[in-house]
Amino acid sequence: MIPGGGQPNMQQLLQQAQKMQQDLQRAQEELANTEVDGQAGGGLVQATVTGSGELRALKIDPKAVDPEDTETLADLIVAAVQAANENAQALQQQKLGPLAQGLGGSGIPGLPF
After folding, report:
1. Strand locations in the chain, DSSP E?
2. Does the structure show a pLDDT above 50 at 113?
3. What is the C-alpha R_g of the chain?
4. What residue ranges do the domains of the chain occupy?
5. Torsion of the alpha carbons at 71, 40, 57 and 96, rounded to the nearest 10
6. Distance (Å, whole) CA 66 – CA 50
7. Quick one: 33-98 is in which CATH superfamily?
8. Quick one: pLDDT at residue 106?
9. How do residues 69-101 score in pLDDT, each as one tens digit?
C-alpha cells in the first residue's frame, strides 16, 4: 500500500474529531451561561432564559396584574417564555449550527458515511 494513497490519516481524523468535540462542549457551556430575554404585552412581562432554555427570571409589570383577569396574565407569561425560548433556539443555532454542519454524517470529516 502506498502511504497517503487517498485514505485519510487516522491520527489526523482522531485529532479533528477531538477538536470538534471540544468546540462543541465549549459552545454548550457558553450557551448554558448566556442569558436571553423574551417579552410579551409590549414589555409588561419579560422572561429570561439561558441559551440552553433554562428559565432564570420572570419580571411582571404591576400594570399587567388584574385580579379579575388572571388568564390574560397567564397568557402573557406563556408568550414571554416562548419568545425567550425562541431567542435561545436562535442562539443555539448560531453557536452550534456551524459545529453540527462540520460533523457531517459520520461525525468525522473525510469519512463517507
Report:
1. 35-40, 45-50, 55-60
2. no
3. 22
4. 33-98
5. 130
6. 29
7. Nucleoid-associated protein YbaB-like domain (3.30.1310.10)
8. 44
9. 999 999 999 999 999 999 999 988 888 877 666
